[in-house]
Structure formats: C-alpha cells, structure tokens
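Quick look at the format.
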Amino acid sequence: MEAISNPLEDESGTIVAAVAIVTSIAAATVVARLYVRTVMIRSLGWDDIAITVTLMFAIVGFALVVVQANNGAGKHRGDVPPDVYQFGMHVNFASQPIYLYAVCLVKIAVGAALIRIAVVKFYRYLILGIMGFMLFYTVGCMFTVLFQCSNIKVLWDPTVEATCWDVKTIQSLSYTNAALNMLTDLLFSLIIPLPMLWNLHVNLRTRVTLMCILGLGLFACAAAAVKISYLPNYGKKGDFLWDSRNITIWTATEVNVGITAASLPTLRPLFKSVLGSTYGFGSRGASQGKKDRKSWQAIPETKNKSAGFNSTGDTESQMGFELERRDLKAFVNDKSTTTTAISQSRTRDEDDVDVDELPIHQGRNIHARTVMSVQYSDR
C-alpha cells in the first residue's frame, strides 16, 4: 500500500492544543475540589482519591499525546521518516490502555460520589454493580488490546511477522466499548440521579442545581458519540497516525470532561467563598446583606447563644452543598462598661443555614460555641 503524502496537512499542533485545553480544565477543577475537601470542609472520600488517580492517568495520556505529535501524529505516513513513524505508532499504542483505564476510573469516581449521597439501599447496590461491571469489563478490554496479535510488536514494527484479528473484529470491540461508556454516562448523569436526588429533603432550587451539574456528564457521552463516528475509516489506507488524530482528541475530551463534571458539584463552598454566598452577601445581593444587618435588635441581658444546625445527613455535605460554619468572634470595647447582647433571627432556605455574626459584648470577654445537630434517615 502506497504511503499517502501531503505536507500541507499537518494537524499535530491541533491535537496537542485540544488535549492541553481539556486536560488543564480538568486539572484546575480537581485541584479546587481537593482544596474544598481537605481545607474547607475536611471531608476527603474515596471519590476524591479516585478522581485524583484519574487525573494522573489523564496527565500521563497528555504527555504521550505530545510525544506522538512530535513523532508523526496528525501527519500523513508519507511525510514522516520510517523510524520516526514507527516510534510514533509505538507511543500511540502505549496511550491506549492509559485512556482506557482513565475512562473506567472516572465512572468509578462518579459512582463513589453517588454512593455517598444514596440513602436507599437499592441505589447503593445498583451503583456498586455498575462500578464492578465497568472495572471487570475494562480489565477484559485490556486483554483484547494486548492479545489482538500473536506478537503485539507488529502494530508498530512492520518487520515483525505475526497474525492479528481482522479489522471488523477490532471495530466491533471498539463500538461495544464506546456504547457501554455512553450507557454508563447516561446512568450516572441522568437516569440514576434524577429519581434519587428528586426526593432529597432540600428545596427545589438545590435539587435542580445539583441535577443540572451532574447532567454535565452528558457532554462526556456526546464526546464518546463523536469518537464513534471516526472509527469506520481508521486504518483503511494504512495511514494510522493521521486517522487517529480525531480519535485521540475526542478520547481525551471524554475523559477530561468526565473529570470536570464529576468535580463541579463539590465546588459550591468555594464559589460561595470567592463570589459571595447566598447567606446575605452573594446571590441575594449586597443590599440584602445590609438590610439584614440593620434588622439586629438590642436586648438588655448578656447570654451566650448557641446556634443549631439541621442537616439531612451526609447528602448535602458530600455533594458540595455543605452547611458552612463560621467562627464566632468576641469584640471588646475597653471604654464602655455597658454590656449589650445583639441577636438576629432570619428565615432562610434549607440549604442557607448559617451564622454570619455573633452577640457583641462590650466591656468583658465572652465565650460562644456552635452546636451542630445532624439527623440521618434511611428509607
């Protein structure tokens, strides 16, 4: 088969740029997620560990994509020296199991996050079953990648003699893998969360917001669908590194969009901290915050107050809808001997419970404490 040559067609830079963008976005969201979980709410879970490992796989995959681009990826076979093309094919093969496991790990990370908020045993068992199936299936796919030829070196070294499965068999396995990935994306981003989250004991806005964020996983499903469209023409003319350019881009997009979608629900405390929370200084506006402060009323006696919090268990705290506690501070005025206690009562949404201020005592030190009451329910 004659090698195709067209020096004007060079998409190696496009491959690197596309993969770099989606990997950088995924890395930024994971770093923010770890900051929220380890510093802000101190609740690191298995889902955080799984998503971190997935990001490591994605970064290694990106490094291999850069190496491929420098060794013929995105170029026609006739425009690349034979030894360079051979090395590029070798690196291309090495990147396949990396992204194969990355796709599986991102599903496991999302599943672990859903288990943390599942209060019904049926959903827990269903999610665990899907996670176990994906892990088992991925290991099986790994064996098909390694043993598709009697000598796997033939995939990058044409001088090696070996027999391989026919193209239709390889394509059928690729279609099956892509279809199962799309199915799990639908299950974890839409089919399972909708009924599970709709019955949570939180207000409508919280439920809708959480489901919309989880629904971002549908973009990973769309990326897998786009990748499928490039499979029929792969390798038909022996121009493998040119044909693989779009498959590489959309495989990396599928993984990194999944990482980003899995991390976004955990970032609400960070958004509140940076942009202003709905506790009076954010979505309700600065004017609402000023109005709240003006509503304080003075009472003549000094009393230490306790603030109580009610939560619906682990649900909100694990999906980024944590109830935030703020430190209570004592203010002392040495020039006055009058003791004044100031309190405020406001009606808030279920997910907007917080203590913004504290009783102010003039002329003496005070001690204030915050008591959190957590109620668990298992239906």
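Next, a different chain entirely:
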Amino acid sequence: MFSHIKDLQFEAKPDGPDAAFARRLQEVLGGKWGEMTVATQYLFQGWSCRLPGKYKDLLLDVGTEEVGHVEMICTMIARLLDSAPLSVQEAAAEDNPMLAAIYAGSNPAHFIHAGSGPLPADSNGVPWNGAFITASGNLLADFHLNVTAEAQGRLQVARLFNMTDDPGVKKMLRFLLARDTMHQNMWLAAIEQLKEDGLEEMPVPEAFPDAEQENAFAYQYIDFSEGQEAAEGRWASGPSPDGKGEFSYQAQPTAHAGEPVLPAGDPRLYGTPPPAGSSGAGKKKK
C-alpha cells in the first residue's frame, strides 16, 4: 500500500525559467539511468524478493524514495518551463541573443505534448522504456547492477550540475548527488551483507557444477591485444576474488575447435544453399 505526502523531500525551485536546461534535465528523469529507471527497478526487485525482512525492506524503501525524486525533478522541469518563451519572436523580443539561443535549445514537446510540463522521456525526447530495468530474482546480481545504476546516475547529475548557473537548480542537484552517494555505498554494503549472511558468494549461482574442462578457463586471462601490458593487471595473476582459483595469463588466444561447417538449411526458409557436393550440403526435403 502506498500513500502520497504532498511535501517534497527537498526543494525543487529554480531562480528563473530555462527551457533548454529543462530539456537536459529530462535525461536524469526518463533516460536509461534516470530516476524513473531506478525507482521502478528497485520496486520490482523488492516485489519479487523471496526473502522477507531487511533485504525486501531495503529495496522497497529506496524504490519509494526514488519515486519522490521523480516528483522533485518533474516539479523542477515544470518550473523551469514556467514563463519560458513560446516563440523565437518572443525570445528575441528584447534583442537578447542569449535568450534566443536558450529558446533554440528547448524541446517543443514540452509545450506541445505536455503543456509546459515534464515528459516520461530522455533529453532527446525518446520515451522511457521498461526494458531499462532488471529484476532477476538473484539479489547479489541485482545489487551489483544497482551500484552501476547509481554510479551512472550520479555521473550524469554531476555533468548537469556544470551545465547550469541557476542557484536553485544547483541546490537540488547537490541533494541528488548526496543521495546517490549514499545509495552507491548502501548497495556496496548490501553486497557485503549478503556474503556475511552466507546467502551469496558470486553474482551467479555460486555452486554451479562446472565441468572439469571448463574449470581450466574459469580463471584464465586471454590477451587479444598487441603487446603484453595486460599481464601486469591484478586480473592476470594471483588469487581470484572468489577465493576459489588462481588467475593465469595466456599471451595469445588459442582455438579449441575447428572451423564450423553448417548443413544446408530447411529449403522452406529460402536460405542460400551451400554448393552441391560441399561438406555442408545436406539432402533437400521433397
């Protein structure tokens, strides 16, 4: 059960209109790494969590907070569009080239589709997509992805911070940066907690029964580049992070199978058949 509190978690009020920045701010609302993505991702991860208690609460708590961030950014975008010029003539009415340039960088859909409001889309106007979210049912795998989501989101907010001089906008962005910092550290701590609780060790089924032949490749770094600089990396020698193997280094890739030759396809699919008499030619169905 959800309820809505009318107060915002933090103030979202610019010092003045800026339609061009409203367009840019759309990225951290409806972009791949935006607040709509993380809010929905954490909620779906929580709803599908089979462990009642702290992990489920963690996911639903943070997902709910992110919904509040969606509202904050939507409010900021609406206020950035308030009193913004609707035409080139209006933008240049006071012979202000800067204002005209700002108008030129705006998104017409803000006014045409949303009536001077936010859109569920990124900074290019591409609609938000549910395919952006992942809720696999494996908490360790999902928590690793959540670290990435917070890192990418924080990076984009930091870049946007340097694209505006509006003190009110910067104030809100500082708050979002602080919360993203917390969430990054929180997911890293949650990963450690899963390991301490003995629930997961690797973000894949930890006890997957690898065949003996595959174990030879499980900790081998293969160098596909010129030179051998990669051999100096932590990933090329020494114990592996999972504590179950030793990294090894192979200077050049080795083929472990011959060239694949496929038989002729089903003639009903109208593919191009191999030449008659070739090893890939098969009998055609009548």
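The chain is about 45% helix and 5% strand.

See the schema section for token definitions.
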